[in-house]
Amino acid sequence: MSIEGILDPNDPELKESMKFLTMTTEERIKLQAQPFDGKKACWVPDPKESFIAAEIVETQGEEVTVKTSKGDSLTLKKDDVQQMNPPKFEMCDDMANLTYLNDASVLHNLRERYKNWLIYTYSGLFCVAINPYKRLPIYTMKVVMMYRGKKRTEVPPHLFAIADNAYSNMLRDRENQSMLITGESGAGKTENTKKVIQYFAYVAAASVKKGEGKKQIHISNHVYV
Ligand SMILES: Nc1ncnc2c1ncn2[C@@H]1O[C@H](COP(=O)(O)OP(=O)(O)OP(=O)(O)O)[C@@H](O)[C@H]1O
């Protein structure tokens, strides 16, 4: 099967994978069209949700009175109120682009993406992965081929983009590369490490088929975990 054939954007298998990697243009437009008042919209602490959306009703000195999305009226210290990003940043791919990079906005972005099964999100050079606890069709050969040789900005966030970047740097600079995979117990470190190795095995095998040399097939044997 040719790589060009594999990457047909209308391929039903690839289309199914894309549902778990990015929003459609229609979904993005709908999200971004939400009403928003930048002077009033904020996040306030909530014992259950960590943070909930609220609207500033009044500011007096160091105190702010808000109405929360649950309908409660609260008066808090200014420091406990976090600014909300405009809707154009809803479910954004890279949280380094957020205007307000506070705890509430990061949590909100990751939470909304996760609700839509978008488990990978960039934060600058890092790729945040949330454990989906179910098999998603985002690690197939076709998805691997979609990421091969692409710039990070050309494709949706994925561990494969990070792996491909390391692979390309290794080929270009002839230097060892390292990836740090960290998180609490059960976060998905082992699972994601396996996906990185799988990626290297696929791209090395594809390179061999393309006649780029047999040496590359050995690459996945040299990954130290
Ligand atoms: N991307 C994923 N897709 C599907 N299931 C996943 C994914 N990541 C993690 N899981 C599920 O979560 C379980 C725990 O993940 P994993 O073993 O990778 O965690 P870990 O961070 O290595 O944990 P520990 O530090 O305790 O070894 C896996 O057995 C798997 O069922």
From TrEMBL:
Coiled coil: none annotated. InterPro entries: Kinesin_motor_dom_sf (IPR036961), Myosin_head_motor_dom-like (IPR001609), Myosin_S1_N (IPR008989), P-loop_NTPase (IPR027417), SH3_Myosin (IPR004009). Keywords: Actin-binding, ATP-binding, Calmodulin-binding, Coiled coil, Motor protein, Myosin, Nucleotide-binding. It comes from the Eukaryota. The keyword Coiled coil applies. GO terms for molecular function: actin filament binding; ATP binding; calmodulin binding; microfilament motor activity. The keyword Nucleotide-binding applies. Pfam families: Myosin_head (PF00063), Myosin_N (PF02736). GO terms for cellular component: cytoplasm; membrane; myosin complex. Residues 37-86 form the Myosin N-terminal SH3-like domain. ATP binds at G183, E184, S185, G186, A187, G188, K189, T190. Residues 90-225 form the Myosin motor domain. GO terms for biological process: actin filament organization. Belongs to the TRAFAC class myosin-kinesin ATPase superfamily. Myosin family. PANTHER family: MYOSIN (PTHR13140), MYOSIN-11 (PTHR13140:SF857). This is Myosin heavy chain. It comes from Didymodactylos carnosus. The lineage of its organism: Eukaryota, Metazoa, Spiralia, Gnathifera, Rotifera.
